[in-house]
Amino acid sequence: MTENLRLNAGDQAPAFSLPNDRGETVSLSDYAGRRVIVYFYPRANTPGCTTEACDFSEKLEELNDAAVDVIGISPDSPADLATFRADHDLRIELLSDESTEVLKSYGAFGEKKNYGRVVEGVIRSTFLIGPDGAIEQAQYNVRAAGHVGRVLRDWLS
Questions:
Q1: Which DSSP state fits 88?
Q2: Quick one: pLDDT at residue 3?
Q3: What is the pLDDT of residue 7?
Q4: Please, which residues have CB within 8 angstroms of residue 103's CB and are 6 or more apart in sequence?
Q5: Which helix (DSSP H) or strand (DSSP E) does residue 122 occupy?
Q6: CB-based burial of residue 2 (10 Å sphere; 0-12 exposed, 13-18 middle, 19+ buried)?
Q7: The one catalytic residue among 49, 123, 128, 135
Q8: pLDDT values of the chain reduced to their tens digit, one per residue, 157 residues
Q9: Helix, strand or coil for residue 86?
Q10: Residue 80: which H helix or E strand, with range?
């Protein structure tokens, strides 16, 4: 398996501008001066991705109270993300990276093991980006179940 790019605490977060599920363009620079969690997930309306998105939405007030916003990014189309939002009453920002360029710039797309086979795809990853645009925390190969609770406990307490 080839080595994938990995970002670490202290690295500058790669800039991006992507469409959301409402047809608007959202940029990382829109969050300048604030802390933001940017997380990458494989596919809308799949079990693990739904768990993670619902957990972030459920804990959004607590995250906002800690002055942290949340952005979820996947290779799904904006229309698929709109369905995902509607199906689960999601309150977080959902962005579409159909080209996977942003996913790759964060090291969240590449070779991974899936059921013992090496495949190319989205590597479930989460980043806490500080007000200055630097990465404060980075985690790859995230397990969806319980992840948001661990983020609140380990990164924001």
A1: H
A2: 55
A3: 97
A4: 40, 73, 75, 97, 109, 122
A5: strand 117-122
A6: exposed
A7: 49
A8: 445 689 999 999 999 999 999 999 999 999 999 999 999 999 999 999 999 999 999 999 999 999 999 999 999 999 999 999 999 999 999 999 999 999 999 999 998 877 788 889 999 999 999 999 999 999 999 999 999 999 999 999 7
A9: helix
A10: helix 78-88
pTM of the predicted structure, to 2 decimals: 0.94
- Annotated active-site residue 54? The verdict is no
Instruction: Report the C-alpha gap between 36 and 129 in whole angstroms.
Output: 5
Residues ≥6 apart with Cβ < 8 Å to 36: 28, 68, 69, 70, 71, 128, 129
Residue that the structure tokens 């990853």 belong to: 125
Tokens of 111: 């070779």
Please state, in angstroms and rounded to a whole number, the distance separating the CA atoms of residues 15 and 5. 16
Q: How far is CA 7 from CA 70, 86, 103, 128, in A?
A: 19, 32, 12, 11
| Closest by Cα among 117, 119, 127, 124 to 144 | 124
